[in-house]
Amino acid sequence: MLNRKAAPLIHEVSHLSLPRPELVHLDNGIPVYVLDYPGQEIVKLEAVFRAGRPEEDKRLASRATSRLLRDGTLQKSGAALAEHLDYYGASLNVPTNLDTSSFILFSVKKYAAEVIPTFAEILLQPSFPEDELEIFRRTSIQELLVELEKGETVAYRKVTELIFGEQHPYGYNSMPEDYQAIQRADILDFYQKWYTPQNCLLFASGRIDKPTLDLINRELGQHKASAPPARKTFQHFAAHPNGQKVRVALPGNLQTAIKIGRRLFDRHHPDFNGIVVLNTLLGGYFGSRLMTNIREKKGFTYNIYSTADAYLSDGCLYIATEVSPDKTASAIRAIFSEMKKLREKPVPEEELSMVRNYILGMLLNGLDGPLNSSDMVRNQIVENQSPEKFELLVQKVRSISANELQDLAQRYLQERDFWTVIVE
């Protein structure tokens, strides 16, 4: 009989391994990474194109192309496409990403033959209607103007601009005039250059049997096109921060938004796995140093966090919070004080154990079920990471020592390397 007065035993996460997808190729060479789960009567099909900001010749071409792709084909209107997918209980998601453009179809297995052809039609025969482009311009500008009234948004835009440089794909900020400047010809040019079989990856998960693979091949494997053009290279022109503070005025802002950030690196850097642990310790979960001290002890804010963002060819680390104006200076001092503590004193083993268990638990959750697993596999493959790299991350989380973390803090948590953006 279950004893509800006794807490359940805590078990260490003992085994974590990334599923190995089966790799097949369509007739036109598109690779398909298959995670087949018999008994799961769902189908998730994701097409990923490396067609993000780094590939743009004109600002916002990537975003406009991915957003408008589902708004009409040569045969159907956007409304007709949406109605068809909705009738069969399917959905199409188009997540935003700086490096890639992704299109995710969710369907029950028995209706895959009804919706996969529509998915292919959207990808292969978009019409990019002029009237939908005008709606995109108007709504995007309105959404942007609303966002620019938020201190958190303004601070994020400014800190990434300072970290990467205002002309860099990861650093430029969209403005209303950029949306006004986008023309249908720009979208067609971007689509024709980058939405090619040679620049596409497919990920299929759920119940992916042979008939489903044959269907995918018939619909997406017959289209042939030339290889995408050579990719651009970008130099880093951002100035070194030297601990600089940048203040931005935002009239009517009731709280001060703070972003403290620095440039880092992509996931291939040898220190990245250690940074995952260090960032979690600093501000990556509810029990972090920043949350415990600045929210729980000092009561300066409701929420504070740090994040290590890794892109395909760069990365950054930043801390974010919002405080009342009279607490701004104190909050900033407290943030840098937490960095200093990590540089000067090893992390206690009990705290490090908690962080290890948290990260391993999050990784375990990411492997739960076909949909989550496919996301993990997708991320590894898109970022040119092998399954062994995932196992190295797990190994680093399990084995990293307090001295290693202190060494990383001494290298990457120096106040002089951070920009401080204050929006007030």
Topology:
Layout: E1 22-25, E2 31-36, E3 42-49, H1 61-68, H2 78-87, E4 91-93, E5 101-108, H3 112-124, H4 130-147, H5 151-164, H6 176-181, H7 184-194, E6 200-206, H8 210-220, E7 245-248, E8 256-263, H9 272-284, H10 289-297, E9 304-310, E10 315-323, H11 328-344, H12 349-366, H13 369-382, H14 387-399, H15 402-412, E11 419-423
Parallel strand pairs: 2-6, 7-11
Antiparallel strand pairs: 1-2, 3-5, 3-6, 4-5, 8-10, 8-11, 9-10
Helix pairs in contact: 1-7, 3-8, 9-14, 9-15, 10-11, 11-15
Summarize the structure.
The chain is α+β, with helices and mostly antiparallel strands.
Compute the number of strand runs. Answer: 11
CATH class label of the largest domain: Alpha Beta
Strand content: 15-25%
Order of helices and strands: EEEHHEEHHHHHEHEEHHEEHHHHHE
Main β-sheet: number of strands, strand sense, barrel status?
Answer: 6 strands, mixed
Terminal Cα span: 58 Å
| Rg estimate, integer Å | 24 Å
Quaternary state of this entry equals single chain
Sheet/helix structural class: alpha+beta
Order of strands, main sheet, comes to: 1-2-6-3-5-4
Low-confidence regions: none
User: Average pLDDT, to the nearest integer?
Assistant: 93
Number of separate domains: 2
CATH superfamily of the largest domain: Metalloenzyme, LuxS/M16 peptidase-like
C-alpha geometry? globular
Instruction: Name the CATH architecture of the largest domain.
Output: 2-Layer Sandwich
Helical residue percent? 40-55%
CATH domain topology of the largest domain: Cytochrome Bc1 Complex, Chain A, domain 1
Give me the number of helical elements.
15
